[in-house]
């Protein structure tokens, strides 16, 4: 009993539990936000009705800028939800990009503000490309890795201490695709499979292309 209590209050164990609680809290908040965004989408629909009504009944120009502002707010909200769920640096940059784009397109600022906005977007693109889009992103406390599908299998072996055969795929996405093909399984979002001492989960797909893979060592 004393040993169990001691293990429960172990610093590493407490960090893990707090981290898991925070992760579930983020998911709950993301769900609440999703419900709110669905409800607020009614505003976008009403904006379309207003534009159509104004176009056919009045001589004034329909309030397109207001409609764009509403749409951008919804898109930013959706990207923020994705950021809470994915918890990767790239998803945070997406939120900032849409926020600045909304300021440029929907709001009518000065030329200086527009120039600063364009410069900020250029900096964010450069950051995402060269500095903040790591091939392997490690969730240290959760013990899993978010791996870019284009990462070489040699790099994965080096970082994870694995011994995946490079002859079966030059990239981690190619390796997983060939493994699933051999097993007669079609790749799909959130598909999980165990290869050796690791669990592979398709974390993100673009049509049939595997973009990111979640790799978790077996405990």
UniProtKB/TrEMBL annotation:
Residues 138-219 form the Transporter-associated domain. Keywords: Membrane, Transmembrane, Transmembrane helix. Gene3D superfamilies: 3.30.465.10. The chain crosses the membrane at residues 21-52. GO terms for molecular function: flavin adenine dinucleotide binding. It holds the Pfam family CorC_HlyC. This is Transporter. It comes from Treponema phagedenis.
